[in-house]
């Protein structure tokens, strides 16, 4: 008995179209299946290793959450591994993505990283570990 791994990670989206574009075209994730649940729609993306990203779009308005990086007791970000982070960073700048932390090297954690926001205001960390 116990946890054996991560199945999926969910984001409640403001716009499914903008979110699908961001995760498929900007980040390059593989788009998987979509499921109509009646009052909401689910769109899945492959994160690798059997883990999926699940975008949820409710068909009614329930307001938007406010997020601040130092807010306690809430989700902070998901960190996605990338290859060639320098090239990835240059492409993000061309696509006018909201970057909240420029490409940097975190010596204590031994990786290069970028922080950005998706179209819903969800923080994403992209990182490449030093070999």
Label this structure with key terms.
4-stranded mixed beta sheet; single chain; 2 helices; alpha/beta; 16% helix
Structural overview:
By secondary structure, the chain is of the alpha/beta class. Helix content is 16%, strand content 43%. It contains two helices and eight strands. It has a four-stranded mixed β-sheet with strand order 1-4-3-2, covered by helices on one side. The protein has a four-stranded mixed β-sheet with strand order 5-8-7-6. The longest helix is centred in the first third of the chain and has 11 residues. The radius of gyration is 16 Å and the shape is globular. The N and C termini lie far apart (35 Å).
In short:
This protein has 131 residues and is α/β, with parallel strands linked by helices.
Helix content: 10-25%
Based on Cα principal axes, name the global outline: globular
Order of helices and strands: EHEEEEHEEE
Ends distance = 35 Å
Indicate the mean pLDDT. 91
Radius of gyration: 16 Å
> Approximately what portion of the residues adopt beta-strand conformation?
35-45%
Q: Going across the major beta sheet, what is the strand order?
A: 1-4-3-2
The DSSP helix count reads 2
The assigned structural class equals alpha/beta
**Biggest β-sheet: count, sense, barrel?**
4 strands, mixed
Tell me the total number of β-strands: 8
Low-confidence stretches: none
